[in-house]
Write the C-alpha cells for this entry.
Amino acid sequence: MIQSSLDEQLDHLDKAILHVLQTDGRISNVDLANQVNLSPPAIHARLKRLEQRGYIRQFVALVDREKVGYDMLCFIEVSLQLHQPEQVENFRRVIQQMPEVLECHHVTGEYDYLLKVVIRNRKDLERFVVNRLTPIPGLARIHTSLTLSEIKSTTALPVA
C-alpha cells in the first residue's frame, strides 16, 4: 500500500496536535498535552519539530472581514495575453503587492489566475478593477464574481 509523505513523516500524535491547533491556535501546552495524552515537555518538543519542518508555518488570528469593513468577497478570474516569463513574473509581482488580494492561484482552464479579493463596497470594487487591476500590462480578460453568502469557509486541513 502506498502512503502519502504526510503519513510517512507524521505519526498519529503529530496529526492529533495539528488537528487541535487548527481549531484553537491559542491553546496552552498543558491543555494541548491533556487533549493528546502527552506531557507538556513532549508537546513542546513536538511543536518545535513541527515548526522547524514546516508543518506549522505560523500562528495567526483570523479576523472577521465584515467586522473590519470588508463587506464584499470577490473571486476574479484573469487571463494574460501572452505567457512570456517577464509578463507572468510582472503580473505575479504586482498582485503580491495588493493587500486586497487574499489569495492568487495559477489555475488551468479558461483563465490563468483566480484571485480571492476583499473589497469594502461596490465603488471600491470598481476602483480596484479599473484603477489597479486593468492597468497591469498584458491582461487579456477579467471576470469578476461576487460572493452572495459563504457556505463553508475554513482554514483547517483534514490531517487527523
In short: The longest helix spans residues 40-52. Residues 5-52 form a domain with the Arc Repressor Mutant, subunit A fold (CATH 1.10.10.10).
